[in-house]
Amino acid sequence: MARLDVLLARNLGWSRTAVRAAMADERVVIGGVAIDDPRREIAARDLPLAVTVDDQPVSLFDAARVLLNKPVGCVTALRDARHPTAYALLSGAPLHAELRPVGRLDADTSGLLLWTTDGAEIQRLTHPKRAVARTYHAALARAHRALPPDLVLDDGLRPRVADLSPLARGDAHPSLAIPADAAVLASITITGGAYHEVRRVFAALDSHVLALCRVRFGDLTLPLDLTPGAFRVLSAEEHSRG
Fold this sequence. Notes:
This protein is an alpha+beta fold. Helices cover 17% and strands 29% of the residues.
């Protein structure tokens, strides 16, 4: 159970005092009825809850997971003095102030970036022992050599590559911006998340990544119709599966 005033404050970004004042003035309406009791409890099964505040519809969430198609050129950060941030693209998402990224994508990588209000989920999905699979579509400057079973990167990292396959252009995700000089495309799945790991794997295989897009993270897949810069709030079913 969650208190109504707490939910309102979190979802609106207001102080509890401002919420109580709005309720006392009958500016908070649920089902056509003005609610003036800030201690009213809301069951989890009733969330997200549709309310009206100052004649504007609002959906109240106690937790949120948001899937963003991060475009190239922005950094995975809440704020940055020099670069656009992925966080800024989430304006209007539920519980925006509480959302945090699950892992990171560098500025030159596009694709699936999960955000959540659940700190335990971030730890669970990013801990190396969990070995959560991540699939990327890559445009390469030249064909790579075969993946050896004992590949070691220059810093001693042994990347865990679950799959490395050729990718037909017709099967590439629309969000992969394929340069005109790309020689081949590839799909790669890794179960680690070290810094620039995918790019370093291809460099170790005598190739070079021109464009990179993450299309899958764990059980989540980047929707084909989700354009770069857009986000989607995950449903209750996707909550339970993630």
